[in-house]
Task: structure prediction
Amino acid sequence: MTNSLIVPANYNETGVRRFAGNPFIEALPSLENKKDDFLTTLAHYPPKVTDKERKASDVVRLMELPILNDVVHPFPEFQRAGLALTSMMRQTYIARNPLTTMDRQRRHALALGGVGGVPFPSDWKSAAAGHLMMSVSGMGKTTFAKSFLLRYPQVISHVEYNGQPLLCKQVVYIFLRVPHDATLRSLCVQFFEQVDDLLGTTYTRQAISLRQIAPMIELMNRVATAISLGFLVIDEVQNLRYARGGNAEFMLNLFSEIIERLGISLLILATPAVQSVLEGSVRNLRKLASAGETIIRPMGKSDMQWEEFCDVQWDYCFVKNKKPLTKKVRDAWHDSSGGNTAFATLAFMLAQRNEIGGREIIDEAAFARTSAMDMAFLQPAILALRSGKPEQLRAFDDLLFSQKYMALRRLLGANEDEVKINTGSEFEEMDKQPLKKNSSKDNSPRPKRNSKKSSDVAPDLPREDPFQD
Result:
């Protein structure tokens, strides 16, 4: 039983020479024509509120307010990230063309897990990459990722390509979240649950039956290869700060292995709180941001983005006396939100809820009342955002970019002119247990592999031909 829509492959030439003759790439949606298209395709604006709707009953208008959560206003940072992800989703399949002999050998080697004498191709090189998107909580990282993926089918079914049989299902992407306890086992089980939901398989049951994490990771590697997974989104990566001992670095090593050994691209979503984990792992940071880094900062009162954001939101005003949006109102709106998009949407929604059936107007007083009564628990964080002072932001590790992390970005070649972010004193280091260095040939740290037992190998994984359903 599957809950996903499996789309039959429809192959189209991309116009890119490197993508020609690759069925996994040609089955993806057509490329955008212009860079600006990445903004227009991400935007979502529900129908604007009409004068007639503003005259509806109090309760009806209150029920309409959540439409504000459906508004997706793209920021310039989304354009840069969208272009990177579009490239990554196709680039990842360059080294994994299912019609090549090398890819078949690679698939067989991974499917057998070292059993059967099938060697992993020594000259195979991953074409996958990682992109790190970081912002304070509520600035739209997850919204961007989900909006971007909406135009991509999640599962594509292949039967034949240019007269050659190609029986397989291609899972274009999977969306995972680092669990609150940052355990690797929980992340792996989440992966298998996603695959089972998409394809109607029973990998979760097999994974849970495994007694150790090493064979579970090997199973994850084989399944990801068997389903031709192209892109993996990992959200809430800042939860790694709660990992015990060396588990945080262990999971980062797994992310690097997914890029290098499996050839699957990654989008990493995190708040600045992840810095305390990444600062101690330069090697993993370089790979996780090999396709660039996008940092989204809160909007300032004088930012053009803030003005445009407010203008868009103002179209969804349900109070009877809708007035022109003045600078004073916009500034009061900013004071109640700190320029954070999630806080700003919440403040506008709550302000309308308070005024509908009452004064029926949104002004400075409406936002001041909302801040004092409905958003009092958020005021410490909002005041810290408004101040921009490191000594205040330090109290909230989700808000502050540290000096040490910024120095590390410069070391890795980041252009500081591309993004302006708050900097201040570094976080306190997390206590970590040192991990033993791995001396494998490809210099890629991997979990220790146990000797294979019959119970550790998934019986329905491909053995002879990776492209048999």
